[in-house]
Design a protein that fits this description.
A hairpin with a 4-residue loop joins strand 8 (250-255) and strand 9 (260-264). Helix 5 crosses helix 6 (156-167). The N and C termini lie far apart (80 Å). The protein is an alpha/beta fold. The protein has a 6-stranded mixed beta sheet with strand order 6-7-8-9-11-10. A 5-stranded parallel beta sheet has the order 2-1-3-4-5, sandwiched between helices. A 5-stranded antiparallel beta sheet has the order 15-14-13-12-16, sandwiched between helices. The protein is built from 13 helices and 16 strands. The longest helix has 22 residues, at 191-212.
Length: 395
């Protein structure tokens, strides 16, 4: 009997599905949260402490172990036990000092790895599972979703696979996937699943549209962050907010009831896993999470509580458009008007009629400054025309 202790998200459950394809009923799978893994591992190692060879192969995927369990695992393996930890989080890289651990953040070609992809490749390499096109396709969809690569790859099935994961019970999702993959057919959703996903996408769109109106902007440790309170659809919400407000360094989604904080970014120069680690969490460079500690609660909930939500940019403008040669007008909740205009091959900013000292090489740089420092939004055409009429003689 083999044992698999893995995470309870799509990537972790993907490992469970691959394990069932490889071992059938000869594997005991336990899905764990970050907090519940270490007690699970400790119980296993305590059970087989005196007779480790009878414990079977222990796989730990998509999660890391504590320092104490690290020492216990080393003793277990030294005593003849079999264990293999496979992870792709950089916070686990220190475990590579052990022969029983493989932590790989990305492949040689630069593609980010996932626990499911690492586990599948390990099983194939060690001839525990024959290479299978259907399973490989499923594994790639899981990898693309978990590493935020599905949009760039234009593989919407990866995102829909995660949607289906949350729509079904864990057992039903696992059973459906295992049955499908064992048939060896190209991966596809059933007609029932397609309809279910369509209804879910409509629900997500309404939820994101409502939450978008609640986003506030502030600075935390020098980073410009957008904060919103939400309990559901964190990936979809952060994706839409990051796309709509690219001037934000990252999006923080506070779940006060669940006492958790989710962090997401679309920028290559921002590593949210480092931010999460400062609060006792971890994750990936572009997607991470942490417990809502007292400090995190103060920074992301208490201090921003009095802030007004960001004003959305006006849509459908004909005249007040980004990069216009006539200038572009913005305004924030406080009523401050900021006019970006071009002169002498530089972009300048007027704040309530006073030109700022700083100038910018591109319009995008000037707009980013306006949005970050003033939390201002693009105004409608009628306000833009009125502004030009009042200030044309000064220009």
């Amino acid at each position: 009997m083999h044992y698999l202790y893995t995470h309870n998200d799509l990537d972790g459950v993907g490992c469970g599905i691959v394990a069932r394809c490889a071992f059938g009923d000869r594997v005991d799978i336990r899905y764990n949260s970050v907090q519940s893994l270490n007690p699970q591992v400790e119980r296993f190692l305590e059970t087989y402490r005196d007779k480790p060879k009878k414990g079977g192969m222990l796989f730990i995927t998509d999660l890391s172990v504590s320092e104490e369990n690290e020492r216990r695992l080393e003793r277990h393996v030294q005593g003849g036990g079999k264990a293999r930890l496979l992870d792709h989080h950089k916070t686990s890289l220190h475990l590579n000092r052990h022969a029983w651990a493989t932590v790989q953040v990305e492949y040689d070609d630069g593609r980010p790895s996932s626990a499911t992809s690492l586990f599948y490749e390990y099983l194939v390499q060690h001839r525990m599972l024959p290479a299978n096109g259907a399973i490989a396709e499923f594994v790639e969809l899981v990898r693309l979703y978990d590493t935020w690569g599905w949009e760039k790859a234009e593989e919407v099935r990866a995102k829909r696979l995660n949607d289906l994961f949350f729509l079904l019970s864990l057992d039903e999702f696992e059973d459906r996937m295992v049955e499908r993959l064992k048939r060896g057919e190209a991966f596809a959703f059933t007609d029932f699943e397609e309809r279910l996903l369509e209804l879910e996408e409509e629900k997500i769109e309404r939820y994101v549209r409502r939450k978008r109106r609640e986003l506030v902007q502030t600075f935390v440790d020098g980073r410009c962050v957008g904060i919103v309170h939400a309990e559901s659809y964190h990936s979809e919400l952060s994706h839409e907010l990051g796309r709509t407000y690219p001037h934000l360094d990252y999006i923080a989604i506070a779940n006060v009831g669940g006492k958790k904080l989710s962090l997401r970014t679309m920028h290559d120069d921002v590593d949210v896993s480092d931010i999460a680690a400062s609060f006792g969490g971890g994750g990936h460079a572009k997607a991470a999470g942490c417990p809502m500690t007292e400090t995190a609660f103060r920074l992301y909930a208490v201090e921003p509580f009095a802030l007004e939500p960001l004003r959305p940019d006006a849509a459908g403008n004909e005249y007040n458009t980004r990069g216009s040669a006539y200038g572009v007008l913005y305004e924030n909740r406080a009523g401050t008007q900021l006019f970006i205009f071009s002169a002498e091959e530089r972009w300048h900013i007027d704040a309530d009629g006073e030109t700022l000292e700083s100038s910018f090489a591109t319009f995008e740089e000037a707009e980013r400054y306006v949005k970050r420092q003033y939390a201002a939004a693009l105004v409608r055409d009628d306000a833009f025309v009125q502004y030009l009429m009042r200030h044309a003689s000064k220009r």
